[in-house]
Amino acid sequence: MPSRRRTLLKVIILGDSGVGKTSLMNQYVNKKFSNQYKATIGADFLTKEVQFEDRLFTLQIWDTAGQERFQSLGVAFYRGADCCVLVYDVNSMKSFENLNNWREEFLIQANPSDPENFPFVVIGNKIDIDGGNSRVVSEKKARAWCASKGNIPYYETSAKEGINVEEAFQCIAKNALKSGEEEELYLPDTIDVGNSNQQRATGCEC
Amino acid sequence: MSSSQFDESVVRETDVEVEAPVESGSDVAWERTGSEHEIDQPSSPSSSGYAGEGGSTSATSASSLIEIQRDEIEEQMRIHIDEISISDSNASWIPGKRHQDEDDASISWRKRKKHFFILSNSGKPIYSRYGDEHKLAGFSATLQAIISFVENGGDSVKLVRAGKHQVVFLVKGPIYLVCISSTEEPYESLKGQLELIYGQMLVILTRSVNKCFEKNPKFDMTPLLGGTDTIFSSLIHSFSWNPATFLHAYTCLPLSYATRQAAGAVLQDIADSGVLFATLMCRHKVISLVGAQKASLHPDDMLLLANFVMSSESFRTSESFSPVCLPRYNPSAFLYAYIHYFDADTYLMLLTTNSDAFYHLKDCRIRIEMVLLKSNVLSEVQRSLLDGGMHVEDLPPIPHSGPSHLGQHIPPSDSPERFKEANHDTGGPAGLWHFIYRSIYLDQYVSSEFSSSISTRQQQKRLYRAYQKLFASMHDKGIGPHKTQFRRDENYVLLCWVTQDFELYAAFDPLADKALAIKTCNRVCQWIKDVENEIFLLGASPFSW
Ligand SMILES: Nc1nc2c(ncn2[C@@H]2O[C@H](COP(=O)(O)OP(=O)(O)OP(=O)(O)O)[C@@H](O)[C@H]2O)c(=O)[nH]1
Ligand SMILES: [Mg+2]
């Protein structure tokens, strides 16, 4: 049996409220979409099995609430993440401008061993709206920002139409996997997060 | 449970008998915390220019200044309230010229029977039941002016009456809560509802939000409450259907003793592993509940927590982890709640002080789920939902021997016999339509199913309002404790019986015989005693306040 570290990958989805984080996750995991907005409270948690290069992994996806009052909650959720997905709405400049805050907040709270190379993936969502006519953030602008932050992979999606969602998560899984392997070598003390299944006998710190 | 008997002679000696509802007057009255009495003032619908007639009459008195200002404020209040009640009082209606462009000027808004507002002490709207908060900014400012004016006088406003409307105020530090109602609910009930709304706000934000106001009085709180509208609206809705909102007790899903024990045992295991509270719920009813050593869960906290979980759709889709505050437990700090739905109705809440405990709680849930499945708890829960609780039609006769079981008189619900036996037109014996029994020691209540005479939502709401009134009058410290109360009006006969151990509220057919009704109440108490194993959570750690 392969080591846990390689089978379980923790992914955090961040971004302003309403940009479509929950919708992306639901499209990816359940192939469903709803027009109704149901604000996420705290964080929701889903898992999905993915195959990558002939091996099976479990993606553990943390869909966090974008509402302002949850932003102090970071540590509880961010720690031990293998990949962080930053989502904005291509029809909202503010949600794009906030990506920087989300990224920095994540790096502070999660405190990864190698912040320069921590794997992020950026998603510009809701490209379907109005046939793209109400779009205010250009792809060029988004890509420029991604490039300036250490070449973050960038995807444009529609959670509603299911456009590019699968591709984006494939990339997320790939990057999470990479980070997982690296962290196993460099940072043994983060290993206990995310695998209490195996640790129950020794008890949990709570 | 008390062995005392409820009999007619007792009722005659000590009870309040009311044969007709008392109508409240249509005067404007102020009630202030400093002085418990109400000052009645004649309404003066003609006084359109404020600080006009009203002010001049008191100009000669020693306290003229304050009188004038109070009239001014009162007048402004009246203007707003009259705008709300445009549909029912043409005589005193003053056109809403100051608020033409606002939502409070729209007829539909004014016609609402019950408004709730939360605002900051700088007059910024935080929440409004109806209409857009920001468009109601003008109205909020008026409310704020009234409150701070009276507060400056070393007093705080509690209640303003204006025609059919009551305006109730609750001041909680920098946060003001206001209810404007034409529902004729007692002041105490409306105040209790404002307290719960404030509590719900604490569940979401904790009291530390006060600090934001200390730092910046102009602080705008609405963004912090983003996405929580449904939580408040569902709480407000529950004021008209959930008796827990005025009884301050919780209720259990009826289950066999063994089933509840099985659920309790596995929760207890979990609680011993560092979980503060573990509760298994079915909708708003408790299946089982366990607290870590010495930790106790107040029924109001449970109500607010259950409302928080059930009204937030996002909890239903996947397992969740969220900060929550239990205002009665500790209003200043967050706990962390792991929430998981086992099916559409049944959910588990595990509360801990540790924000890192998600994975541990997830493991706990898996363990709990295994036990629940093995011992068929979840299927028993579904069966109980189908069967319902205590049906008044099944009330056993009084000379009753041997252990009784809930529903033992009920043939399977698919059997035609059921329909023959239960007389759905008259409800239970002696015209018994419904009852609520509250155990004081357990902090729990049980409410019977509604008989067919109270089948519509409207009828049920009216009955709860009647109970609520009864509850308020029984708990009115000013009048002294009543033991019993008998009320007859065109809708029901209502009987209330309060002892040290329990409170019983019962509704009968308006034509019911008094002596028989009293006898029936005794039978209800006996019945509850017989089935207490199934309707209450017994023997758990005490959930003291
Ligand atoms: N047209 C369109 N609408 C979308 C898309 N993705 C999400 N939405 C809608 O946008 C709204 C918000 O989506 P959510 O997924 O709930 O947003 P969120 O980021 O999870 O919000 P929080 O939970 O508050 O942080 C919902 O009404 C969705 O139906 C999309 O790709 N296209
Ligand atoms: Mg969401």
UniProtKB/TrEMBL annotation, chain A:
Gene3D superfamilies: P-loop containing nucleotide triphosphate hydrolases (3.40.50.300). It is a lipid-anchor. GO terms for biological process: protein transport. InterPro entries: P-loop_NTPase (IPR027417), Small_GTP-bd (IPR005225), Small_GTPase (IPR001806). Keywords: Cell membrane, GTP-binding, Lipoprotein, Membrane, Methylation, Nucleotide-binding, Prenylation, Protein transport, Transport. GO terms for cellular component: plasma membrane; vacuolar membrane. Pfam families: Ras. Belongs to the small GTPase superfamily. Rab family. PANTHER family: RAB FAMILY (PTHR47981), RAS-RELATED PROTEIN RABG3F (PTHR47981:SF4). This is Ras-related protein Rab7. It comes from Cicer arietinum (Chickpea).
TrEMBL record, chain B:
Residues 29-40 have a biased composition (Basic and acidic residues). GO terms for biological process: protein targeting to vacuole; vesicle-mediated transport. InterPro entries: FUZ/MON1/HPS1_longin_1, FUZ/MON1/HPS1_longin_2, FUZ/MON1/HPS1_longin_3, Mon1. Residues 42-62 have a biased composition (Low complexity). Residues 114-235 form the FUZ/MON1/HPS1 first Longin domain. Residues 274-367 form the FUZ/MON1/HPS1 second Longin domain. Plays an important role in membrane trafficking through the secretory apparatus. This is Vacuolar fusion protein MON1 homolog. It comes from Cicer arietinum.
